[in-house]
Structure formats: C-alpha cells, structure tokens
C-alpha cells in the first residue's frame, strides 16, 4: 500500500513540476534567445540529475542483490547443515536397529527424530523470520540493507 502511495506521489510531483515549468516559461517575458538558452540549461541540469538518480538506483539495486545473495546462501548453508545432521541421526538409528543395539521400535525412533527435527526447524524458522523482519524494516526506513 505504501509503495502505491509513494509511486502516486512521485508521479504527481513530476507532472506538477513539468506543468509548472512549462507555464512559467510560456508566461515569462523573455526573448526567444533567452528562453532557448534557459531551456538548454534546464535540460542539461535535468539530464545530470537523472543520471545521478540512475546511478544511485543502480548502486542500491546492486547492494540489495548482494544482500539477498548473502542471506540466501546463509539460509542454504543452514538447511544443508540441518539435513546433514538429520541424515546422520537417521543413519545412526538405522545402523543401531540393524545391529540390534537399540530395543526401540521404529515408531519410537521416528518420533524421536521428528521431535529433534521440529526443534531445529523452529530455530531455522525463527532465524529466517528475523531476517525478513530486518529486511522489511530497512525497506520501510529507506535505508540500505547493511545498515
């Protein structure tokens, strides 16, 4: 919702600025040569500002892309570590059942593994939720993702 309001405000400001500039130029008592000179200067100034906005947007986009890449690689690493842990536990349980060391039933082992996985999944979920909250807060403030 706030994106739409910001977008509408920006478009309205831009259109209002253009209409105001055109009416000021057309109603000002200047000679044609002075008017063309001023138009040329204003066009050059607008080009420079647009170039500055473009470079800022490109820089911010690159910064956000880098941030997203870092966060997704951290998440992938966490998921990989957790799945390796789970795989090791399942392998351990299976080998102990095969060797007859454990007298637990398959259902008991499954319950134990699922409860361990649930705790680890909750930890991962909490970490991801916190990262999303930080990302959302930084976009609301208009700050960079690293601040």
TrEMBL record:
The chain crosses the membrane at residues 9-28. Keywords: Membrane, Transmembrane, Transmembrane helix. InterPro entries: Desiccation-related_membrane, YtxH. PROSITE patterns: PROKAR_LIPOPROTEIN. The keyword Transmembrane helix applies. Residues 108-130 have a biased composition (Acidic residues). Coiled coil: none annotated. Residues 36-57, 88-147 are annotated as: Disordered. This is Gas vesicle protein. It comes from Alteribacillus iranensis.
